[in-house]
Design a protein that fits this description.
About 70% of the residues lie in helices and about 0% in strands. It is mainly α and about 280 residues long. Helix 5 crosses helix 11, helix 7 packs across helix 10 and helix 7 runs antiparallel to helix 11.
Length: about 280
């Protein structure tokens, strides 16, 4: 048997497997491809577990995400799909959805902070300029690079979790059950980077994944809206954190505003996700 025949036999074997086994095989292959890159990178960064990642997270994350197109390409070859089947459709449709998603993402999370400010749960930083323009200050040219980073991260994660894994799991499960499983994996995957901070965010991360799944459904199976939403959230949160605009007043328990200043670890963050889902449902 030649190499081509062996590869085809492996493909047929993978096609016959249950969806959950395919998901496991996907992650084994992904990690297997990443480790030869990750280990030298970690050595070069002088990092090893269980040290905190701090500013060393981004290089390792980049090395992990840069191989995603390769592993996804292999997956869609096995399944006989195209990138369009995963929700990456041609412009201008995806660009319109992307723009709408970013706008809704920014608006929804900005509304969350404005409401908390009105209730006295947070305050703006003492700088007079930032008090007058607390949200607008994230649009500084230097911070616009955060949007590009957010688009890359969200595009990669949505392609994996709301695209490839969602499609795989729908082979054996309903669309919502597949979304629930993919969202659970999405939430658990964040433990790879920061266990202590992520643990309290797990319910919020799972719900976030479900909202993004709903966004794909509302977008007719396309990923543009989900990518935009995700990128908008990353952009605002990261920009506000970098600019150090928000200060929590302590007037309410942190489980309301977010444990350790993490919105997804609080009731307010859950409310904002529910609000976003409601808006999606209205305009579906």
């Amino acid at each position: 048997m030649g190499i081509a025949d062996q590869i085809n036999s492996l493909r047929l074997l993978l096609l016959s497997m249950p969806a959950i086994v395919k998901v496991m095989a996907f992650f084994v292959a992904w990690v297997g491809l990443w480790l030869p890159i990750a280990i030298p990178s970690a050595i070069a960064l002088n990092w090893h577990p269980p040290q905190p990642l701090e500013n060393k997270k981004l290089p390792l994350l980049a090395s992990l995400y840069l191989i995603v197109p390769l592993i996804i390409r292999g997956g869609i070859w096995v399944e006989g799909w195209s990138f369009a089947d995963l929700g990456l459709v041609a412009p201008p449709q995806i660009l319109i959805s992307l723009g709408l998603g970013v706008s809704l993402g920014v608006l929804s999370i900005a509304t969350l902070f404005v409401i908390q400010r009105a209730l006295g749960w947070i305050s703006w930083q003492s700088s007079e300029e930032k008090i007058i323009h607390p949200i607008l200050s994230i649009f500084q040219p230097s911070l616009l690079l955060t949007l590009l980073l957010g688009l890359w991260i969200s595009g990669t994660e949505e392609l994996i979790f709301r695209g490839f894994l969602q499609n795989l799991l729908q082979q054996d499960y309903s669309i919502f059950m597949a979304g629930a499983i993919a969202s659970l994996i999405f939430a658990a995957a964040h433990l790879l980077w920061e266990v202590q901070e992520t643990f309290t965010q797990l319910p919020g991360l799972w719900l976030m994944g479900m909202v993004l799944t709903f966004a794909r459904i509302c977008d007719g199976g396309n990923l543009g809206l989900a990518i935009g939403l995700h990128a908008g959230w990353i952009w605002v949160i990261a920009s506000l954190d970098t600019a150090k605009i928000v200060a929590y007043t302590g007037r309410v328990p942190e489980w309301i505003t977010g444990i350790k200043a993490q919105p997804l670890a609080g009731v307010a963050g859950i409310f904002f996700l529910a609000m976003t889902a409601g808006i999606l449902a209205i305009f579906e």
